[in-house]
Request: fold
Amino acid sequence: MAVVSILLALSLGPLLFGIVNRTKAVFAGRTGQPLLQTYYDVVKCLSKGAVYSRTTTWVFRAGPVIGLAAPLTALLIVPFAGAPALVAFEGDLILLGGLLALGRFATIVAALDTGSAFEGMGASREAQWAVLTEPALLLALAALARLSGSLSLSGMAATLSARTITQGGLGLLLAVGAMALVFLAENARVPFDDPNTHLELTMIHEVMVLDHGGPDLGLIVYGGTVKLWLIGSLLVGVLVPRTAVWPVDLALWLAGMVVLAVATGVVESVGTRVRLTRIPQLLLAACIIAALALILVVVR
Reply:
């Protein structure tokens, strides 16, 4: 079952991007891109050749590879649809945070390797936001671990599957809220970033990959879809109820992923990106919410 879930993540990850974009198009009164547009983009990039600047080194070429390998490895330790992960052990939630940090680090150093001040600006912003995003995620996972009594992501999913937000109490609600903010920040979505922006002074993630093209850009785009699916599955795993019948659980979980993608599109349609000076405040709020969730589940 874990293998099936991983195959679904690899094959359906780009579809989530299509659902997000189609939702945004509906709100804007447009037809929008085809649902499979991300698949077309990845295939198109992989079919092209790559051009490298003479100022770049192997670090630039390794960035997209590591950026994709990190979330792909994380798929092995994240449970899906009520089934335990392919690799599960106590403390794997720390490994999850480390893998996400590794992928971000690879993208940052690849941007710095170009010698471009513009990409260096985006790398600096990405590193600044990461200082607050990673603690928020780990604190939220620590709250869920305390609530479930397990330090394994698979154990947490199995224990919390029978709970709802109401049954879990305010601590669970706050932990889910913090994870939702992390989901948007890690995937460069509004209100933290705009994946479709072309304004030089507001670009964060997009500016770091401007010099990548061809297969490298394809790996970056596909890695982003895997990351969206990966973190989204953590949220859906807590919110979607379980029936102990795996086919039914799988259908509910897939429906939850679709609802999450639609919700992301709605947030980006009705909301706006906050000013760069306000992003640290928003991420700090996520850390405080996650820390409060941990305190509540400890003292309950």
Residues 2-28+39-299 form one domain. The two ends are 35 Å apart (CA to CA). The chain has one domain: 2-28+39-299.
